[in-house]
Structure formats: structure tokens, C-alpha cells
Amino acid sequence: MTVKYRNDQKPININTARDFSASTLAARALEDKKADAVNIINLTQKTVFADAFVVATATSTTHAQALAKIAFDALQQLGLTVTIQGEQGSDWLVVDASDVVVHIFCNGARELYNLEKLWSDDAGWQDESIIYDSETPDKLAS
Predict the structure, then answer these.
(1) For residue 122, what pLDDT is reported?
(2) Residues of the chain with pLDDT > 90: what percent?
(3) What are the residue boundaries of the structural domains of the chain, listed by start?
(4) How many angstroms separate the most distant Cα atoms in the chain?
(5) Using CA of residue 64, residue 70, residue 74, residue 75, what is the dihedral sign?
(6) pLDDT band at 119, cuts 50/70/90?
(7) Considering Cα of 10, then 7, then 27, then 14, what sign does the dihedral take?
(8) What φ, ψ does residue 53 adopt, rounded to 5°?
(9) Are the beta carbons of 110 and 60 closer than 8 angstroms?
(10) Distance between alpha carbon 9 and the CA centroid of its chain, in Å?
(11) % helix / strand / coil in the chain, to the nearest 5?
(12) Fold exhibited by the domain 22-135
């Protein structure tokens, strides 16, 4: 399986993608399938239950289900144990790979729950939380 990234990036064979973090791979796979506003939130200094959240917006519940499947497949190809949580037709789906948790929202739900703000520096955290923002892809941390 090959995941094609934005036009300025080379495709990567997902079977050799162990050089990339799981969160980065999931984020790029979501972008390739037209997810909006993809962010990676670094949780390493904030909690023990996950290292990162990947947050993305889908255009519809059908799109959200397709994005969840793409994230599931990408993370599973890395050898991770992955589950999808959320009911069919839900406006919030979670793809859980233990250290990386992918949240896929329809627009209204993303604004309502606002995970970026909840886990941001503005919420009292000391480090820079959002390490990748699809609006500014050069901000990607290694």
C-alpha cells in the first residue's frame, strides 16, 4: 500500500514507513483523502494514555467513516493494534492505536469539543502542543 502525500511530497510505501511517526503517517493519509484542518497535538508531556492526538474534520458522516478506515489501515500497516470507536453516522469517530489517537469530526462537533484548545498551551500546558497544522505544514516536528 502506498500513501500519497500532498503534491510537493513523495509517495511513501506504508510498509517501510517505520521511519515516520504513526501520528504523521495518519495525518498525511487523512490529508490525502481530503480531510480538512488536520492537526497533530503532542501529548507526551501532558498525559500517559497517549503520545499524540491527530484531529481532522470531515465534510460529512460518510466522509468521516471513510477517513476513519484510511487512518485505521495506515496505523494497522505499522503493526499497531487499532480500533475504531463511534457509531455509524456519528459526527465524531475515534481511531485508537494506543499511543496515537485519531479524532475525526464533522465540523460542528469539532467546534463544540475543541480538542486543540482543551490540550493547548492556553489551557495551562507548558510546551508547544500542536506540532503539525495542515495550514502550516512546515511546522511539522520530528
Answers:
(1) 52
(2) 35
(3) 22-135
(4) 41
(5) positive
(6) confident
(7) negative
(8) -105, 140
(9) no
(10) 18
(11) 35, 25, 35
(12) Beta Polymerase; domain 2 (3.30.460)
Please tell me whether residue 52 adopts helix, strand or coil conformation. Answer: strand
- CA distance linking residue 47 with residue 119, whole number of Å: 10
C-alpha cell read off for 75: 496505523
Contact 111, 8 (CB under 8 A): no
Q: 41 and 131 in contact (C-beta within 8 Å)?
A: yes
What's the pTM value of the predicted model, to 2 decimals?
Answer: 0.72
Q: Roughly what angle, to the nearest 10 degrees, separates helices 22-32 and 61-77?
A: 140
Q: Residue 8: its pLDDT value, please?
A: 42
Hey, which residues does 83 pair with through a beta bridge? Answer: 96
* Residue corresponding to grid cell 490540550: 119
Distance CA 24, CA 84 (A): 18
